[in-house]
Design a protein that fits this description.
Blueprint lengths: L5 H13 L2 H6 L3 E2 L15 E11 L7 E12 L5 H14 L10 E15 L4 E13 L3
Parallel strand pairs: 1-2
Antiparallel strand pairs: 2-3, 3-5, 4-5
C-alpha cells in the first residue's frame, strides 16, 4: 500500500469537478478548505470542499495500490436543501464511473458509497457529504 496516490487523486477530482460547466453554474467554487465566510451567510452561494478521506491497502499479487474513501461536501449557506441537492446530483453523476487521469498511478474504479445531509449553525446552514470509494493502482 502507498499513500503517494492521495495527492494525484485530489488533483484529479478537483480537475474533474472544476472543469464541468453544469456544476460551475450551480456552485461558487471548489476548495480544499472552506473559504473565509462573509458576515451575512445568506449572501453567499453554494460551494464545494474536497474533504476527509480514508486510505486502505489494495494490492494484488503483482500490483500495489490503494483504496481511498473520499468525501466531497456541498455547503449551502441558505435554508433548504434544494440547491445543494441539485449540485450533489451533478457531482454524483460526474464521479460515478469517472476515470480521470492521475499524475501517478491509475484509477481502476470509482463507486458511490453514500450521502448524508446535515444542518449546522442554528439551522441556518446546510451540508451534503458525498462519499466515494476509489480503487487505484500504483504504476510508479
Amino acid at each position: 500500500m502507498t499513500y503517494a496516490l492521495a495527492w494525484p487523486l485530489q488533483e484529479a477530482v478537483y480537475q474533474l469537478l472544476s472543469g464541468d460547466a453544469a456544476l460551475g453554474a450551480l456552485v461558487g467554487g471548489i476548495y480544499d478548505a472552506a473559504p473565509q465566510q462573509v458576515s451575512d451567510a445568506a449572501d453567499e452561494g453554494l460551494y464545494v470542499t474536497l474533504g476527509d478521506e480514508v486510505a486502505e491497502d489494495w494490492r494484488t499479487a503483482s500490483d500495489a495500490g490503494a483504496l481511498h474513501t473520499v468525501t466531497v461536501s456541498i455547503h449551502a449557506p441558505r435554508r433548504g436543501f434544494a440547491e445543494a441537492k441539485r449540485a450533489a446530483g451533478v457531482i454524483s453523476d460526474l464521479m460515478a464511473g469517472a476515470m480521470p487521469a492521475l499524475s501517478r498511478g491509475q484509477i481502476v474504479q470509482i463507486l458511490f458509497i453514500d450521502a448524508r445531509t446535515a444542518r449546522a449553525e442554528n439551522d441556518a446552514l446546510r451540508r451534503i457529504d458525498l462519499r466515494f470509494r476509489v480503487t487505484m493502482e500504483d504504476t510508479a
